[in-house]
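Record 1 of the preview.
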Amino acid sequence: MSAGIPDELSAPGSAVARRDADISPYDVAVVGAGVVGTAIARELSRHELRCVLIEAADDVGTGTSKANTAILHTGFDAKPGTLEAGLVRRGCSLLREYSSQAGIPVERTGALLVAWTEEQELTLPELARRARQNGYPALRSVGSDELYVREPHLGAGALGALEIPDESIICPWTVPLAFATEALLAGVQLRLGTTVRSVSGTESGHRLHTDRGPIDAGWVVNAAGLSSALVDRMFGHAEFDVIPRRGQLIVFDKLARSLVSSILLPVPTTRGKGVLVAPTVYGNVLLGPTAEDLDDPSDTATTAAGLTGLLERGNRILPELIGQEVTASYAGLRAATEHPDYQIRIYGDQRYACVGGIRSTGLTASMAIAEYVCAGLADAGLAFERRCELPGPPRMANLGEAFCRPYQDTAQIAADPAYGRIVCHCERVSEGEIRDALQSAIPAHNLDGLRRRTRAGNGRCQGFFCGAQVARMLEHPDGRG
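->
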């Protein structure tokens, strides 16, 4: 087994096991397996390069990527002329097409940016002008009468809105998993549970000193999210500081889904997009996030004050929502910096790229960021040779309620009855889906990993009913239990 690769990934027949045990030094090491790091690894894997993807956690997509508002943004409200604005616009198109190919659920619900005060109403024309500057002219004004026809459960007092018809909801868990799976199948090695502690130079580039042993690479791409400033300092730079910004969110039961049809956006502020109400592809309704700057980059706790504040805001936006059952609450951290734009820099003389300050729009922009970074690496001297044969996007398990789930597919059940045996009744997750997640190229090896791959345990009872059976399946992923 290669150092740092869990046994699950080195099982006979796995993508990692088919690789040579040790091909270090690598051409490129990507640090961080969130949605941006996995997108970069996927883009690199399309070329004749030996690459490694390094992640401190025990799974891909476990940081900011797993705890966000799950929106595929058009970028209508980004600051014109910024790198973020261009990459979000390009990334939205790329990810929409990729999701269609990979089976990642996306629903084009559209959004309504609601003005509740005269001051907010006066800002709507400026936001529309900004959207046109960003290459998105499809907005239109909606008066209060039409607004309440569209959203009859909206709280009283809304003065009007801007309609953004192409804003969409997406599964944020499946995206980094799809990117990482495609990269893995194309030959990228994945080192989970591997933390970079320091960096030193070698004749061919860099030696990354990790808690699982050294990793040598000619080039390094820093996509470490909340740790990106720390890694940047290992290479002698101090261009930005990461300020962990906590966003707390509340997930309401599926019975609340009929209360809202569009994403309900607030007028944005300098601190972010504000508190929104949005449907999810899983059939729930989301309220949040807060925006709290912290010192601790690991503090993902929810707080009584934060959740109470959300409920107060939600009571104005959608009063009937507050009487619905809460399925879950959670918090995620965004990698905010003191700068108003992404912090992406290529240091050709060092053979190093920093991809920092990627905030809540990182999911949408991920594929465009990967394109941009790889173009920068090529300009800086990394030799890119396009591969003749590529695996293409993997077909991912569908987690979206708007699409056919396995328990609804009679042909799939006829071919394999395991897809008709329900384990998680709240989320209608079958035995076959859990088995597949445990035996995939990047298998789940704990309950959180299974939640993100199948939705098992994510429903109203939060695993109370299915927990024991899911735990048994985790202990015996080969089905012998």
